[in-house]
Structures are given as structure tokens and as C-alpha cells.
Write a structure and sequence with these properties.
Elements (H helix, E strand, L loop, with lengths): L1 H5 L9 E2 L12 E8 L7 E7 L5 E3 L2 E2 L14 H4 L5 H24 L5 E4 L5 H7 L5 E5 L2 H9 L4 E3 L10 E7 L8 H11 E12 L4 H6 L13 E2 L2 H10 L2 E8 L1 H14 L4 H16 L7 E8 L3
Parallel strand pairs: 6-7, 6-9, 7-8, 9-10
Antiparallel strand pairs: 1-5, 2-3, 3-4, 4-11, 10-13, 12-13
Helix pairs in contact: 3-4, 3-9, 9-10
């Protein structure tokens, strides 16, 4: 009975949406597997459910869509605030340019000629990097403060609500750690597929909860990031997405630096040693490089089927 009570705890003062079926396979067999804390904004606790049929992991119950914005109001939420305070955030910005170069090279390598979209563009760092290199790109962003920060960089950014009206065909749509935040992610993926040119690419980066650092840190793993992360993907889940939306998963690429960043944040969550986070990030990358486990975060390159 004590175990059951543990998984019945829910945040107070929040309107919650209880999912009855898995959004990937529609199975009603969802089992509680972990309790995680919102270390960024509220210190509330949220339950992770595991689908007994397809093994997809979801945050359940979830804050209703209208409630989610309050969980992003934090000076520490770096993709929106661009804060450089604290050692971890300074290190993040130190490697950001190299990460931007890497992301751009992947998009450039696989996308056909045409315009690009960055969906969930945050404060516009990727938009600026891409447009500075002569590629036409449009951002869509739900957070008003982040949208305005991107516009101050003189980038073309539109409210996310306008994406439903967007029907131009584009060569590349990128989502850098965005898919896990979207309540209606299947609907958005359908729209992405419609908006891609024949042979266009959809490039998605998400954390992988089967990585070594995720297994080590367990409920303190920073990339669970409840309740902002509503869904927790593995490569198997991403292959299921490809099948559902008529896409071909062509390539999987690692995000090497994410293991260090996430491990250091995880150490902060558990009041540990940031140096230990660097060691764990290194170990996670080594185990992924040897093929024993997936990387902490991975980039998936999907191509629209050309009939």
C-alpha cells in the first residue's frame, strides 16, 4: 500500500490531464515507473508511466496545456533566458557555437535545396547561425520572451499558433530538443510531413532515457525535466514515429556534449559533485561509442518518402 501511495502523489494547484492510452500505440496498459521532481521551477513531483506494450515512457498525469507556461518561468531555463550565470551555464555557452556548427552541418548535408524551418526556435541562436550563412530559415516559437529575444537578433520568428496556417513546402524542418515538450506531438509531426518537400528532411534531437547517464541518475536525471518534458523517447520510439508518418529514418547522430551538460545538471539535482558529472558524461559517451548503450541525446534524420 505504501508503494501505491507513492505513485498517487500529484502537484497541488495544477489542473492535470490524465492520459488513459499510450500516444504511440494506443495501449491502455500504462504502469507507474518513476517519480521525478521539477528541479527548475516548482519542486513539484510528477510520475513517469511506462507503456506495457510498446515501452514508451510518458509523464502522466501532465499539466493541462494552459498550465504548462508557468513551468518555463525560471531564470535557469537556459533556452529561453540565455543566462550565463553559474559554472554549468557558462560551460553551456562555451560549447554552444560548436554545437550550432554541428547541427547546421547535419541539416546542410541531408536537406535538398529550399527554405528551412526551426520549430521551437527558443531565443534564436540556431536561426542566427543558419541565416548568417545565407540559408533562408523561419522560426516558430510559443514563448513570447524567447520569440522577442530571437527577433532582437533580427531573425524571422512567428508565434507557434501561426504554424497551423503555414502551408509552404520546405526542404528541412528542425526540432532541437522540442518534440518532448509538445502536448499534441503526433498532430505536429503530421503537419511537418505535409509541409516538407518531396525528399525533404525532418531532423529531431531528443534525450534518450536508455543512455548510461539516465540509468545512473534515475529519478534525478536532468533530461527527464518534468513536467516540461511530457514524453521520453528511445530510438525504438523514433522508428515507430517514422512508420506512423510515412518517413524514413535515414541516420542517427550523437550529441556528444549533452552527456556532460545533462550529467552536471543531474549532479546539481542530487546535490552532488559537478566534477563527477563530467566523469559520468565521459563514461556515458564511451559506452555509447562502443555500442553498448545509446548516447544521452541523439539526432534523428528522417526523410519524407517520395512516391
Amino acid at each position: 500500500m505504501e508503494h501505491d501511495h507513492k505513485f498517487s502523489d500529484v502537484p497541488r494547484g495544477t489542473n492535470l490531464n490524465v492520459l488513459q492510452k499510450c500516444p504511440l500505440c494506443s495501449s491502455p496498459r500504462l504502469s507507474p515507473t518513476l517519480i521525478c521532481t521539477d528541479y527548475t521551477a516548482t519542486r513539484e513531483q510528477f510520475t513517469l508511466n511506462h507503456c506495457d506494450d510498446c515501452e514508451f515512457v510518458i509523464t502522466n498525469p501532465q499539466p493541462e496545456a494552459g498550465e504548462l507556461s508557468k513551468y518555463y518561468i525560471s531564470h535557469d531555463y537556459i533556452s529561453h533566458s540565455e543566462t550565463k550565470s553559474g559554472l554549468i551555464n557558462r560551460l553551456y555557452h562555451l560549447v554552444q557555437k560548436q554545437n550550432l556548427r554541428y547541427k547546421f552541418s547535419i541539416c546542410k548535408r541531408y536537406a535538398p535545396i529550399g527554405n528551412w524551418i526551426d520549430y521551437g526556435s527558443g531565443a534564436g541562436a540556431f536561426l542566427k547561425y543558419v541565416s548568417d550563412r545565407g540559408q533562408t530559415i523561419t522560426g516558430f516559437e510559443p514563448d513570447q520572451n524567447a520569440l522577442e529575444a530571437a527577433q532582437r537578433k533580427q531573425q524571422v520568428v512567428l508565434p507557434i499558433t501561426e504554424y497551423g496556417l503555414f502551408d509552404s513546402k520546405v526542404a528541412c524542418i528542425s526540432m532541437w530538443h522540442v518534440l518532448e515538450h509538445i502536448p499534441n506531438f503526433q498532430e505536429v509531426l503530421r503537419k511537418h510531413t505535409e509541409n516538407l518537400l518531396p525528399n525533404g528532411v525532418l531532423i529531431i534531437a531528443v534525450p534518450n532515457h536508455l543512455s548510461n547517464d539516465a540509468r545512473y541518475y534515475n529519478e534525478d536525471w536532468a533530461a527527464y525535466d518534468v513536467p516540461r518534458h511530457l514524453w521520453h523517447f528511445s530510438e525504438k520510439d523514433m522508428r515507430k514515429i517514422a512508420d506512423t508518418h510515412g518517413l524514413i529514418l535515414e541516420h542517427v547522430r550523437p550529441l556528444i556534449f549533452d552527456a556532460f551538460y545533462v550529467s552536471m545538471l543531474s549532479e546539481k539535482n542530487k546535490r552532488g559533485n559537478i566534477l563527477m558529472g563530467i566523469i559520468l558524461g565521459t563514461l556515458s559517451n564511451i559506452k555509447a561509442w562502443t555500442g553498448r548503450l545509446p548516447y544521452s541525446s541523439q539526432i534523428y534524420v528522417f526523410r519524407k518518402k517520395s512516391f
